[in-house]
Design a protein that fits this description.
single chain, mainly alpha, Vanadium-containing Chloroperoxidase, domain 1, 2 domains, two-stranded antiparallel ribbon, 10 helices, 55% helix
Length: 251
């Protein structure tokens, strides 16, 4: 039976284009149904092909990689308790709520259903794009080279080959570019927040500098494709009108 479960789990692994279910086990070893895999809602697999969108990360042991590792050690030595506190908050808010720190309490998706619907679509396709890139490049996390790097939780199941690009950074730039299009009068603050959110992955010690560069490139590309998609124009217009009606942006 265990062999059968393993075979089913392998056969139903995550894909970009088709819904799937996987088999997991609970703490008692009993089979449980895991959540279905995400599927692209607007973009195509070709749109999010990581080899087309991103250059490869620095090679392990290269001068650039060693320089980036030294930068992380500097961050760990120089960061303040307040900086780490903010980085930990950001670590736990890997979604559009990260912008509530600058947009204020009125930016509450529970009260903004059209905006919430749009951002759910955006984050769905962004997550698939980031996951595809991580799997394509299989870059080691910084702690593989220096286990003394301590900051944000690594997570018990965190893949050590998932460094490039930063998932947090990708979602910050994807959401940031989309929100900037919806709220152009706040664009400068939104994009500054996206950059700060990504930078905190260095404070956490969980990503290299080039992981953030890749995240900015991927996140921006995904956002632009989504904003240009004919399939999303009605939802974009509805979200923009809703944000204007809520007084969060000007017409």
């Amino acid at each position: 039976m265990n062999r059968l479960l393993l075979a089913l789990a392998a056969a139903t692994a995550l894909t970009l284009v088709a819904p799937a279910a996987s088999i997991a086990q609970d703490m008692n070893g009993q089979a449980t149904a895991a959540k279905p895999a995400r599927t692209l809602q607007v973009l195509s697999p070709a749109d999010v092909d990581p080899v087309r969108l991103l250059p490869p990360p620095p090679v392990d042991g290269s001068v650039r990689q060693k320089t980036e590792l030294a930068e992380l050690r500097h961050y760990q030595d120089a960061r303040t308790a307040e900086q780490l506190k903010r980085a930990l908050w950001d670590d736990a808010h890997e979604n559009v709520s990260l912008f509530s720190t600058i947009l204020g309490p009125r930016f509450d998706l529970a009260a903004l259903p059209q905006t919430a619907k749009l951002m759910a679509i955006v984050e769905n396709d962004e997550t698939i794009a980031a996951s595809a890139a991580k799997k394509a490049f299989h870059r080691h996390r910084p702690w593989i080279f220096d286990d003394s790097l301590v900051g944000c939780p690594r997570g018990a199941a965190k893949d050590p080959l998932s460094s490039y690009p930063s998932g947090h950074g990708t979602i910050a730039y994807t959401d940031g570019v989309v929100l900037s299009a919806l709220m152009p009068d706040h664009a400068a603050d939104i994009m500054a927040r996206a950059s700060d959110f990504a930078e905190n992955r260095l404070i956490c010690g969980v990503h290299f500098r080039s992981d953030l560069v890749g995240a900015e490139a991927l996140g921006t590309s995904v956002a632009v494709m989504l904003l240009r998609s004919p399939a999303l124009q009605a939802q974009i217009a509805a979200a923009k009108a809703e944000l204007q009606a809520a007084g969060l942006t000007t017409p």
